[in-house]
Amino acid sequence: MELWTAPTPNGWKVNIMFEELVEAGINLPQLKVRTVNLQKGEQFSKEFVKHNPNQKIPVLIDGDVSIMESGAILQYLAEKYPTDLLPPNEKKWEVLPWLYWQVANLGPVFGNKLSYTRYMDDVEETLKSHPLEIFLVIVIAGLLFGVIGMIVAIPTYTALKVILKEFLSENKIVKQLTKDL
C-alpha cells in the first residue's frame, strides 16, 4: 500500500485514519508514504496525474487499485478494514453524511482560506488568521454546540478533534474566552 500525500490538512486526513485503524487494533500492511512536493508542482507530473487527473493530494495505491480524493480514501479504508469507525449496517448512514459534509463543505472553505491567504506573501497579515478562529468563537458563544458535539462524537472526525484540541490549546483568543469555563 502506498500513500502519496503532502503535509497539508487534506493530506493529514488519511494519515489520521491510518492511526485510528492501528488504534482500533487493525494489523495494517506495510505502508509506503511518498511525499508530494506541492511547491515544486509534483502533483502535475505525468506519474501523479495517472493516479489523479484532478492533480490533488492525497492518492492511495493499494495493489491494482488507485484511489483519489480524501473522502473516497477514508471510506475505502473503513470498508477494507472494518471497525466501529464505519458501522457495517444501516448505522453507517449516521457517519457517511458527515464525512461527505466535511470534504464538500468545511474542508474546502478552510482550505481555500489557508491557500489564498496564509501561504501567499502579498496578503495582509490581518487576513491570514486561521478560519477556525471565527468558527470556534461561534461555537464558544453557544450557537453550534449541538452540531459540533455530534461531529466531535463521530469517530471518523478524529482529524477535526485533533485540530480543535491543538487550536484550543494554543489560541490566545480562545484561551481568554474560555478561561472562566
Give a short overview:
Helices cover 52% and strands 9% of the residues. With 181 residues, the chain is of the alpha+beta class. Mean pLDDT is 76; it is low at 141-145 and 148-158.
What is the topological layout?
Layout: E1 2-5, H1 9-23, E2 32-35, H2 46-51, E3 59-62, E4 65-68, H3 70-80, H4 96-118, H5 131-140, H6 145-153, H7 158-170, H8 172-178
Parallel strand pairs: 1-2
Antiparallel strand pairs: 1-3, 3-4
Helix pairs in contact: 1-3, 5-8
Describe the structure.
This protein has 181 residues and is of the alpha+beta class. It folds into two domains: 79 residues, Glutaredoxin; 89 residues, no CATH class. 52% of the residues lie in helices and 9% in strands. The chain is built from eight helices and four strands, in the order βαβαββαααααα. Strands 2-1-3-4 form a four-stranded mixed beta sheet, with helices on one face. β3 and β4 form a beta hairpin. α1 runs parallel beside α3 and α5 runs parallel beside α8. The longest helix is centred in the middle third of the chain and has 23 residues. The radius of gyration is 18 Å and the shape is globular. About 9% of the residues have low confidence.
H-E string:
EHEHEEHHHHHH
- Low-confidence sequence ranges: 141-145, 148-158
- Shape verdict: globular
**Major beta sheet summary:** 4 strands, mixed
* Strand order within the widest beta sheet: 2-1-3-4
Rg, nearest Å: 18 Å
Count the DSSP helices.
8
First-to-last CA distance: 45 Å
Calculate the mean pLDDT score and round it.
76
Strand content: 5-15%
**Fraction in helix:** 40-55%
What number of structural domains do the residues give?
A: 2
Q: Structural class given helices, strands, pairing?
A: alpha+beta
The count of DSSP E runs of length 2 or more, i.e. the number of strands, is 4
